[in-house]
Amino acid sequence: MTKFFEEFLTKSDGAFPELKFNSATYYREKHSLDVRFIISAFDSKFYDDKKKAEVQKVVEEIFPGININVTYIRTYADKTVVTNKIYEYFNKYEQMLFKFLGDENVSVTVEDNEIIVKITFDSPTYLILKSKESDVKLKEYLDESFNGTVEVTYIERVVDPENIKAEDLMPKRTFTTGQSFRLIKTDGCDKVYARGKISGINQMPNYICDIKNPAENVVLCGKISGIQHREFKNKKYNPDDPNSREPEMKPMFRCIIDDTTAKIECVCFPRQNDVEALKSLNEGEEVICVGNVSISTYNGALSYTLDGIFRCSIQFDSIQTVQNKPCPAKYNKVLPTPYNTISQDSLFAGEVVVPEFLKDKTFVIFDFEATDKYINTAEPIELAAVKMVNGKLTEVFQTFVKPNELISDFITDLTSITNEMVKFAPKFEEVLPDFFKFTRDAVLVGHNISGYDYPLLEKYAREEGYKFDNDLVDTLLLAREHLKEFKRFDLGSLSKNLNISHENAHRAIADVYATAELLKVLAKRLS
């Protein structure tokens, strides 16, 4: 425990047991201090502005005269997530032992606010690890990732020398279904971009679907898509300083990588002399990356900031395929209805030539309204979608969804959806099979689909055994790339600038229709 956190607990009189100190950064030029606390995804739902203001006040009392910025890292812990984190530690720091870890010697218990880890080793290994204080280091590693109390115990397995067997020293590594730490095999490591002294990657990449919390030096792989080369305004640029070497604009690279278990949005900020190398990357190439995973303060989605990108060949057969539930034979809770051209006759009115981007393809444009902007704690309260076949809207899928928690006044003010409106609506797990059927053989489309709607869908789908392996089209990413005459790319601003009807914004069906018309505009540009 740090001296700061000890003082924080003393000054606050233990009023914030749900918080754990993560890290702090002091910026001398700004005379400011960023303090980061860990809070569980569950506790964060009840952490209102009043509590945050109280925390801010305590920290300011500890550091008077300094500009304080307090941020919160939301974490999620269950048996699988914690076990994966343990294997991640050994994969990074004890690779010789990693292959001998499995269900036989790793025990994890997660109860309330306590994580208990017990790992059994043969006597020689146990003595070596204890001398290196490996158990202490593992505890610190887990402490950085999870809230609550972490207890790590290494247990010595004593073997009778008279009856020793080979498997006693090197036990066979096995995993139970749903409780495995998964790694992907790759071949080759051809550098495209790397910061600092990174010359290669010597770790096997994790499954993207197993990454649920912020973490540093995470290795992931997958096929690359949604490539964007952009620029952003450099805050350090000073046109009045003739000696400044800072450029007015700096390059930015964005993409999505997909390893078939999940997708994640990626970003990196290369030097100018690295831009051409990044431009050599093509859609669909296989890459292995290293970088830091963080949670966006904007929408709570996971974002992967890349420190290195390398071309590779992925052994997709090494990935444990998720058993997908079959597509239902018929709709049960939500029956799609034919698209009503009278109520939305402005959409695609008078269109004769179908843009090449839309020709002979099926798209499902969808949107959620939810209880929270953060993925970890959000519950759907409305789902709307339209199906577009060969450039024409054909069907509508729309339903309210009953969440487990009450809808807040803030969300009601934003969406106009009340608790009374969803009182008799189906649960999302009841809606999910019908939506799965509605989306088969279609490309999924949404505005910021990769940053919010798809991760939210995927979170629930994984729990229910459905795998939405559809291709994705994110109109936000496409707009940034192909509508560069505009400065703002939120759906409301684009609708206004493009004369797209967008009444009742922040209701799912209104956002879907606006996104469908935006897709038409983008399709013309792409074609």
Structure commentary:
By secondary structure, this protein is α/β, with parallel strands linked by helices. The longest helix has 19 residues, at 508-526. Strand 17, helix 12 (449-464) and strand 18 form a beta-alpha-beta unit. Helices cover 27% and strands 29% of the residues. Mean pLDDT is 85; it is low at 170-180 and 342-348. The strands form four sheets. The protein has a six-stranded mixed beta sheet, with helices on both faces.
The total tally of domains equals 4
Question: Quick check: average pLDDT?
Answer: 85
Shape verdict: globular
Q: What is the fold-level CATH name, i.e. the topology of the largest domain?
A: Nucleotidyltransferase, domain 5
Specify the oligomeric state.
Answer: single chain
Structural class: alpha/beta
Name of the CATH homologous superfamily of the largest domain:
Ribonuclease H-like superfamily/Ribonuclease H
